[in-house]
Amino acid sequence: MPERKKTGFFQNNSQLLIPLVAIGLLLIFNLIRDSSFFSVNIGTNNDGYPVLQGNLISILNGASELAILAMGMTLVTAASGGQDISVGCLAAIAGSVFVKVLRAGPITGWTVALGVVLCCLVAMVFGCFNGTLVSVFKIQPMIATLILFTCGRSIAYWINGGATPTVGSPIITAIGSFIPGIPVPTPILIVILVGIILSIVFRTTTLRLYIQSVGINQGAAKLNGINPLKIKLLAFILLGACCSVSGVIGVSRLSLINHETLLLNIEMDAILAVAIGGNSLGGGKFNMAGSILGAYTIQALTITLYAMKVPSTDVKAYKAIVIILLVILGSPVVKDAFRRLRMRSNSGRTSIGKEAA
Amino acid sequence: MKKLLALVIALVMILSVSLALADGIKVGIVNNPPSESGYREANVKDFEKVFSAENGYEAKTFYSLKNDEQLNAATQFITDGVDYLLISAAETTGWEKVLNDAKEAGIVVFLFDRMIDCDPSLYAAAVVSDMSKEGDLAVQWLLDQKLDEYNVIHIQGAMASDAQLGRTGALDAQFEAGTMNKVVQQTATWDEAEAKKITESVINAKTPFNVIYAENDGMAKGAVAALDEAGISHGVGKDVIVMGFDCNKWALRELLAGNWNYDGQCSPFQAQVISDMIQKLEAGEAIEGLNEKNQIISEEKGFDATTLTEDDIATYGLGE
Predict the structure, then answer these.
(1) For residue B123, which of A312, B21, B140, B151 sits 20 to 30 Å off, Cα-Cα?
(2) How many A/B residue pairs have CB atoms within 8 Å?
(3) B293 within some domain
């Protein structure tokens, strides 16, 4: 019995193998290519404060929005067995609301807080809309969220009415760049914060179990007294909240919102992060750490390509090649093949063990 | 029966008289939606301002990014019997039939901002920008700075878009001629955050550079954010020259503050030029100043941070 438990634990973590190997390979590749790729040093920014600099920081910092969205996407994927393709648009809407609030008056700590709360609420309402379509009306998640995917950026435009409204303020810069005196980019801190909040929720509540059981077998979950409607709705609302956080980071990075390009096409990367993380896109069991690692893998790949100065027209092709490899490595067929290999070697070992005994 | 006929005739007469009284010059405008870009927003506002009731126009407008929807709208405008049809086409093809219909109906067609692949006789005039001229202006300005060395970070817009091709061409010529060094040439597809990442990667690689040539304001802002985080000075008389395009008001204010050096613009203001031509036609005069393709090339602007004034921002700045 304890042995089985061990394999269970191992299998659960083997999910992390693919993204870990991928990141590892990328890092080794970069190490061979240019060992200075990893140098992290402390410099001073134009405001005169010490800040961390280097490619590693760029990767961690640049993937922040994606990592947060990947966390939310994991929940939705697990609960509904489908993906939300409107996260980028929803982030743009949330960002627009944030900007709208900030532009209403002088920017103070309070207006920023109000903006964050309001945009979070708005994004949760939209998440609720998506969730209702999926849970109550039983529409395929991809189709249901296609609606917001199509019209989301128009809505974002209506909210502010201008092409690229700007919101300059030291507080905004502190959110999107560095808090004076703290050398770690704030977006990285925000990702850690969101991660901590989610893990506390998972540790103190039965949410994880409920989401997984709804994702694995909705009927069985219902018979056990779990309301699948509520769980799915909750997953989409949580994803909405994640979108708003990403939107706020995206806006704060540049103190401006371009509703057409803010987190453009990030939905695809977010879904990819979930897939690279070894999660089944058909729902059920999930591993949050895998998705987050997946997000950093994608960003590491992008930064590597930039550092190699791959011609702009070729970047996407290279990215696609690596991603195809990753997805195939993580596919059930290849995984099964690996498992069979391992079982064979394991059984070989145990039989040897028995003989010795 | 006679009474009825008389009534109908009377009604028709009243109606036609009232119509004749009410109308100014009927203009149908087919454009792309203002949400497309800051450029388009300014463009649409410009047309709304010029083709207003106060200026003696009765304008109908239709906005779409889709060519087929635009074609339908144009056909509808022809059926409605507008006097002039103003078109900024989403795509360059598929317009010949509609333009022929307009010609047969005696409607004068003006093209603005975007060309259509068709015989130049099908439109009275096309008011367009010469995208390559915009890039030429900017690169010429850069050459005039007489730097000892040009190490350029070139951040491109969406590949193969008109604006990207025009803004890239002139700089590519310099790279090929060897007068400027290409530190990096990457597309950020108009995405500010991507521009920041590209600049960061150059900074992290510790490759020296002294010019940022971003193909729009947003991407220039992204690049500058990376400079700020890395503690690299930029702007007038500083280490790195920052160049953007579009001339958003906020970007011009960066110029005025000396944080950026140059901002180029492809003029979105074509309405007045077209209105002037319409007034000439109405007065029975001929339109002058067209080239062999019936085009009028808009004058392009480029602003230097050292000579920019508040007035320029108010007049030429886009947005708010």
Answers:
(1) B21
(2) 123
(3) no
